[in-house]
Each structure stands twice: as C-alpha cells, then as structure tokens.
Design goal:
9 helices; 260 residues; eight-stranded parallel beta barrel; alpha/beta; two-stranded parallel sheet
Length: 260
C-alpha cells in the first residue's frame, strides 16, 4: 500500500449556506466537520474563517476561536490556515495575520505575496522564525517559475518546498481534468518539491487519483467542489473524503492517517 497526505478544504472564502447547507462556517461547525473528516481519512484540515456576516476573514482572533474548537473534537488533525486574499485583503494584512497568529502551518499564494516585494521578504522572515510549515499556492506554470525564481534569489528559503497546484479557477461552471496537472509537473523540471493538488468540479476525484498515482498528495472538499463523480451533491465534506479514500484504496493507495 502507498500512502498520501489527504487534506480537506471544507468551505473556502466564497461558499455560503445557500450554495450548500452543509458548508461549515461557525467554529462549532468547523470542529464537527474536522472530526467527521478525520474519521473518514483526512489528516489535514485547511482552515478558512468567517466574520459575523459570513465574510472571509484573516482575523487572528477568529482563527484562534476556530482552532480551539477543532482541537476539542479533532485533536489529532493537523490544521493549516490560509492567507488567501480573495480580493479583500492586501499583502500587509496577510503578513499581519502571520505575525500575530504564528500558525503551525499556512498556505501562501506566491502570486499574491509577490505583489509587495518588501512585505514578501517580511512574510518569509516571520514564518521562518516561527517554524511555520508553508505550502505555496500555485495557480499556473507562471507561478511555478515565480517560486523557482524566489528560491534562486533567496526571497523564499529553499527549505520551504511544499506546494499545491490548483487545477482550474474559482469561476462558475469550472470543471478541471486530470491532464491539467501535466503542465505543472513539466514546469518543475526536476526540482524536488513536495506537491499536492486540488481541483474544481465533477472530475475532482479523478484529478486527485491521477495526482496521487503520479506521486503527489491530495486536497479535497467543498472549497473546490460539492458534487460526486456522478454529479450528485455530497451530503457533507466527510462524504467527499470517504469517496476519495475508497477510490484510492481500489488502486493501492491509502491516506497517511492510516499509517498512525
């Protein structure tokens, strides 16, 4: 059996209850979701928090509240916070979140953080000092080149080699396909990065199976997709996790949680 890390991204910055009634928004809902997804096979939880009106937030206090609730119900799941701007925040606010929260793990969009070179340096100094495990978000092969350039000039420490390839875009009707991964892998040009994949739409599971069979890890969840391979809505995030786990085991792969 081969093992892969399985992260769940249960809500993202955009979905609300009208998109799917099981989108977790409150700290309690996030905690229950984390517990259910851990039991289904996920070993990582990609955390977005919302403010009182349901809007995407980078407020460290809201993060602390959600993390505390998750720790009560799913103490063993690893938590990764996001610094995603989502068209709301600038780089200085992303850096402030990292400085104030000092998370154990965080995702950072290489494209977003590069928008302010001075703050970019500050961001990586902060996460380096705090020992934060950084996963670089790469939306395109141009982002891969941007990351490799930052490694080369020392802007980003070469030890921070975790990345996630995003197959597709946050647009209505987006459907990703397994072959969308190939340009990313070609762009690596032999660079040894530890990579994961997330994908949009009905073929999400097929994309993730292709990724793990190609040597990568997977991120699944309502942030990117709410429907099964047959096109029917999942009842909740745990169902999407369970579906991928079953499909992966059928081809000889299992989530890293089962190594514990």
């Amino acid at each position: 059996m081969h093992y892969f890390d399985l992260m769940v991204a249960p809500n993202g910055a955009r979905l609300i209850k009208s998109d799917h009634p099981a989108v977790p928004l409150s700290p309690r809902e996030l905690a229950v979701c984390a517990q259910d997804c851990w039991q289904a096979g996920a070993n990582w939880f990609h955390l977005h928090v919302r403010d009182q009106i349901g809007r995407h937030s980078l407020d460290p206090d809201l993060y602390r509240q959600a993390i505390a609730e998750i720790r009560k119900l799913a103490p063993d799941i690893k938590i990764q916070i996001t610094t995603e701007a989502a068209g709301i925040f600038d780089v200085s606010e992303q850096v402030s979140c990292l400085r104030d929260l000092r998370p154990r793990a965080a995702s950072i969009s290489v494209r977003e953080i590069a928008g302010d070179p001075h703050r970019q340096v500050e961001a990586y100094e902060i996460v380096g000092k705090n020992g934060t495990l950084v996963q670089h978000i790469l939306y395109s092969t141009a982002d891969v080149s941007l990351l490799l350039q930052a490694f080369g000039d020392g802007t980003i420490p070469e030890t921070m080699r975790d990345v996630i390839f995003v197959l597709g875009r946050y647009t209505d009707g987006q459907v990703s396909h397994p072959q969308d991964l190939d340009p990313f892998l070609n762009a690596l040009s032999g660079h040894n990065l530890r990579w994961s994949v997330c994908a949009f739409g009905q073929h999400e599971q097929a994309c993730l199976l292709y990724a793990i069979q190609s040597g990568g890890n997977a991120r699944i969840g309502f942030e990117n997709n709410t429907v099964s391979p047959e096109g029917t809505p999942y009842p909740d995030n745990a169902a999407s996790v369970a579906g991928l786990v079953a499909a992966a085991k059928a081809v000889g792969f299992a989530p890293a949680k089962e190594q514990l």
